[in-house]
Amino acid sequence: MRFIHTADWHLGRLFHGGHLTDDQAHVLEQLVDLCREVKPDALLVAGDVYDRAVPPPEAVGLLDDVLSRLVLDLEIPVVMIAGNHDSPGRLHFGARLLAGRRLYVSGQFVSQCEPIIFNDAHGPVHVYALPYAEPSTVRCGLASDAVVDHDSAMRAIVNGIRAGHPAGVRSILVAHAFVAGGAGCESERPLSVGGAGTVDVSCFAGFDYVALGHLHRPQVLSGNGAGAVRYSGSLLKYSFDEADQTKSVTVVEMDGQGVCRCEAIAFSPRREVRRISGLLADLLAPSPESNGKEDYLEVTLLDQGPVLDAVGRLRELYPNVAELKRVERKLDDAGVARLDHRKATDLELFRAFFRHVTAQDLGPPQESAFAGVVEEMRAKERSS
Ligand SMILES: [Mn+2]
User: Are residues 310 and 355 in the same domain?
Assistant: First the structure.
């Protein structure tokens, strides 16, 4: 069986105030092209289809278009679960109707997760599509006091699946969870307040492939008898701390024994997400490089002292500057505390103030300039 694993589309997401719909459409176009070329037996979407419970109409329209092309035009079955950003009930709308056209949507938690059965030359493959559910929902649904957190919830659900799974049949689990040891990034919403909200990778022992969503960095987790436990990663970079990542989908080839060969296929985004730094004058200087001006940028200015309208001037050249940072100067208050303000001279006070603000000492020309200004003011006072 050949399938494509993707997750965390976050349709409807804003990036620093701007809609990402066109950027998402751009890479989803590449996904549709890939599906046309690779002809997978299924596309698995492991949750966070939308960015929020009530997505904007543009996001709903984009999903409708992409799914219609995959399922109706290319006749590729799609298995899609809810993540922690999706509304279980809303995503679940039409699930029974859509299953007739081989669009399998699993939005709401049910106590017994029935498999979707695929067949290849070697026999059946059972795909278990497990939507994200809060531990309290699982606790009620399974009527089990043993469920107290994400780990015990996942364990209870997966034990139920294993109990009903026929021996010797290959299996795939599609789930949305934070597996302990996985590397997170800033654009993921924590699953639990105060606790880790993680599940141990040992939960997934026995499945031939576990298609995960939630962590936005593509990564493989293995151990303790688990087979291929993998995060495909998100569709796009949704925060600046993902600047160094390459976003991709995973094309998986499963053999008759359930052994999987995985290949990450990278997207080329409409705009990159990058971090740059330098002096404002250098960043604004004409450069032969014309690529990447439209990218989403986090700019760190290395200038000392005040800079007027840095964002406005940068945006003339880089229209999508999303964030501006200044290097933090280390304040050095040495000497300031010991200064007795009642006895200190004007020059001593100003010297301390200058050091506090700039972390530098006043040089001789600056001292004489200050003395000159003070003397001028005194002279004016005397004459008035
Ligand atoms: Mn997500």
Answer: no
